[in-house]
Structures are given as structure tokens and as C-alpha cells.
Amino acid sequence: MSTQRFGTFVVTLATVATTGFMATVPAYAKAPQHSVLAGSAVAVADKYSADAAEQIFKKGGNAVDASVAIALTLAVTYPEAGNIGGGGFMTIYMNGKPYFIDYRERAPLAATKAMYLDKNGEVIPGMSAFGYRAVGVPGTVAGLWEAQKRFGKLKWQEVVAPAIHYARDGFVVEQQLVERAADASKDFGGKTNFAQYFGSLKAGQNFKQPELAAVLGRISQQGAKGFYSGKTADLIDSAMKKGGGLITKNDLAQYKAVWRQPLEADWNSFQVITAPPPSSGGIALLQLLKMKEARKADFAGVEHNSPQYMHLVSELEKRVFADRAQYLGDPDFYKVPVAQLTNETYIAKRASEVNPTAPSETKSVQAGLGTAMPEKAETTHFSVVDKWGNAVSNTYTINGYFGSGVIADGTGIVLNDEMDDFSAKPGVPNMLGVVGSDANAIEPKKRPLSSMTPTIMTKDGKAVLVIGTPGGSRIFTSIFQVLSNMYDFKMPLKEAVGAFRFHHQLLPVNTIFYEPYYPIVGELAKGIEARGYTLKDQGFSGDIQVIKIDGQKVDAVSDPRGRGVSRVIH
Predict the structure, then answer these.
(1) Residue range 409-420: average pLDDT?
(2) How far is it, in rounded angstroms, from Cα 292 to Cα 300?
């Protein structure tokens, strides 16, 4: 382990760059604890998952118990992004100690580096994004099972029960879900069985999913085995064979979630606990914070979200995305240079390259140790704090809304299209316009690079902030902007989340993306364009879910951009 200091920023590095961190400490103590907060809190994607969490807290469950109930409930009531057919990352702060579990999807055993290329070596459009061959081996159930087994206070059946209820008895469909299903169906266009399961959604209707209820019942009774073996595995295997997919029962049986050492850093008197590789998000977030600190003289007196502020942030983001594409991938297959990427001298060099007055020439911004690749934006995040001060920040995904558009026949499970997160061909942009290198090339059992950045901040050994968001490659840039809003511009939590956000990612050249929630128009647009940038609507907005703790007081905010719910439970 090594420690490196950069101004007010200290990065602690452990075994992140090589192998998965396997837990050697005792499981969470079941001894009675005393409440330290005024209440538990959640910031989640919908009201049903908030209700599920409240039910768990009232039974005496902790943050991990509630998180598992939330995740499984969202698989039912938020099917466009909540899932058991995908994967993700969970950052945990339990009993004063940080943990991280990686339950990201893996490439099937039959996957090959050239599986999405035609006979001429060119990428076949859409093959990695839609349909049966786009699906990676799901990890969600394994990750939730391992986390609850290690830290949960309640019985497994108790935390699965809310999801079973909503699948069996139904939930009331909201208009946003109907609209997202209609938009997604345009991409699937008869290529999958999506319409069979979600083609008749109507706002206000009570929507039941009996096949999914049966799957959740098996998971409730058998734990992770109820998904990765037996009848559920047989049904997934059969669906894959029928549709020409690669996942088999053997793939499912061999899947393992991995405990890893979280990335930790001191910043502005806080300890930042965030995602290690195969997430690029943690490293990228720390790089952004460090470079902004290094260029603080340039930011001094610059108005929030002014053309100059947006230019300076874009200059930082340009360099982060150059590094992301070249150096980041699955640490079990590739030695990710975490220490080098967060090294004081390296960060100083990268920060010194920022042009404070005009966009740097894109060709000159190579990965500094030499180009960038993101997942789709429709991920899901939730933040949880229990009355004992334990915290969970969880981001999980099926990639695009409704994933691959494939529902495993007989299960109701929406399957991911996570294979699109690999570099199908190094140097060729994926569907969000970002490119990648061989570090993220397809290999059997490999986890694709991700931007998911579930983050917890602590002070004096206590959790003070839990934050995360969906948004693909916009995830860590969004979190960075909210943190800047809170701590640099001293905005109240709700205002910090609600303020407009923007994004730059090296390519397309000198392009700043804005969100449809806050279009950049008028004088602001003219000011940005005058600095040499092109403005483009990215077509979606993020969904920050954040909890702030100040002493015993707990404040939770869900992004106004989504249908999320924040709740403090006394």
C-alpha cells in the first residue's frame, strides 16, 4: 500500500490494480447497536423501492438489508433499468469500515475478441447493443446475495419479499415507464420478444409479472442458487440457445461476485470512498477533483456554469477521457496503473496542459502515461443510510433501457446488453461516441469497463455523504459537478442536485453536451460557441440520488429529472 499527497488531496492505493480483494475480516457483528442518527434515509429511483426500504427498516434491517430489497424491487417496478438480469457495483460503509463488491457482468465463455466484426474486420452495427448476442453473464443476484449474507441483519427471505409482492400482485404503471418502453421498442423492432412482455403497458394499469414472481420465489428459497442453477438457469440457457446467444448453464454456474478494495482518498477534510476498476469512474472522479484543485487559480472568481467555467471543466474532462480509454479495464485481466494515474507528478503534468482561454487541440490530448468508450446512460442508482450510520451507495445496470430487449422466456427477466461496453474494435466509437483500447477488448469471463461511480464520503470516521447516478460516461462528470456545487459554491443540497449539468468527453471534437432537462440556449450558448465549442443535446438527463448527514440530521434528495423518491424514515 502507498500514499501520495497532492495539496489537500491524499490518495490511498491498495490491491486495486491487480486482483480482487477477498474479505479476511469478520462478518458484520450482529450485536445490538445504538441509533446515532435521527432516522434512516433513502434516495431511490421510485416510490415502490422507497416503500420496500421503509418496510425493511421497520423490521430492524440495516442499510444492506434495505439495499437488497430496493434493488430487487426495482427489478420489478423499474424494469427499464432496475434488474436481476444485469450487474453493478456496491460501495458499503459498515461499522466504520469501507467495502466494495463488484458484481459486474462477465463475457460468456464462448465470447471472442472479434465476435462483433464482419468478414472484413468492420464492426457490425447494433450487434453488441441489441438482441441475444449482446448479453453478458448477469451478476446482480450474486452480488446482492454476497452483500446480504455478509452484512445483513434480517433473513434473506424478508428482503426478497417486497419484490415478490410487486411481481405477483402488481404495481401501478407510470407514464414515464410507458414512454421509455415505447422508445426502446423502436430499437428492438421485432428482433426480440420485448413486445410480448412490455408492448401493452398502459399508464395507470396494475401490471403483474407472474413469471418474474416465480423466479424471485426460487431466489428467496434458494439464495443465489435459485438464479445460477436449477430451473431459472435452465430457462436462461434455453432462451439463449433459441435466440443465438452465448450464455450457457456453465456460464451461470461459474459466475462469481468479487470483493475488492475500494479506492479511497482524502479531499477537503473528507475521506472519499469510491469505485475501483473495472470501474473507470472512481479514478476519473479523483482525477477531476485533483486537477481542479491544481488549477484553482483559474477557477477563482469564475461564475458557476458560466462559459468560462464550462470551458475549464471541459479541459479537465478532455484529459480524463483520454486516460480512461487507454489504461482502464478489468483488473483481473489487465494491470490497471492506478498509482500512476493518481500520482502527484502525473496529475500536476496533466493539469499544466490545460489551456485556460481556448479548447486544447484534441489531437494533442493523448493518454498521458496516449483515446475514449462509455456504456449507455440508462443505469440505476440508489443511496441508503440506516439509523446506525451505516451507508450503501449502489449503482447497477442492464446498460440501455430494457437492456438487450431480450426477456428470457418463462422468467420475465430483462437481460442486459453489457457486451456493448467492451471495445468491439479498438479505436472505433461505441454508441455514445467514445472509443477504447485493447485494455477493454472482449475476452471470456472478463468484465467490461464501466463508468459507474457509487461513492461515499466520510469525516471523522462517520458517513457524511452518499451519492451516485446513472448516465453512462456522464456519471463521474455529473457527480463531480454536484460535489463542486456543494463544496465549492456552497449550494444547498437540493439546489446542488437541481442545477444544470454539462459534459465533454474528448470526442466528438470540442463538443459540449447539455441535458434536455436544461437546454443551453440564448446568451449562454453564444458565449460557449464563441470559445470554439459546438453544443449538442445528449438526449437524456442523469438521476442523482444523494443523502447528506450533518451530525444527527439526515437530508435526502432525489434528482428532479427522474421519478425518484427521497425519504427520511424515523
Answers:
(1) 97
(2) 11
d(CA 544, CA 202): 27
Q: For the segment 315-326, what is each residue's pLDDT rounded down to a tens digit?
A: 999 999 988 877
Helix axes 344-352, 281-294, angle to 10 degrees: 60
Distances (CA, A) of 343 to 15, 227, 255, 351, 366: 16, 42, 34, 12, 17
In the numeric block, the cell 471523522 is attached to: 460
Tally of CB atoms within 10 A around 570:
10
Active site residue 3: no
Q: Which of 91, 379, 411, 455 is catalytic?
A: 379
- The residues, any chain, with a CB within 8 Å of residue 185's CB and separated by 6 or more, are 194, 195, 198, 199, 405
Higher pLDDT, 82 or 325: 82
In angstroms, the Cα distances linking 124 to 119, 347, 531 are 10, 38, 37
What gap in Å lies between CA 102 and CA 124, rounded to an integer? 30
Q: What's the predicted TM-score (pTM) here?
A: 0.93
Q: Which cell numbers in the block locate residue 420?
A: 456493448
CB 141 within 8 A of CB 219: yes
Tell me if 275 sits within 8 A of 454, measured CB to CB. Answer: yes
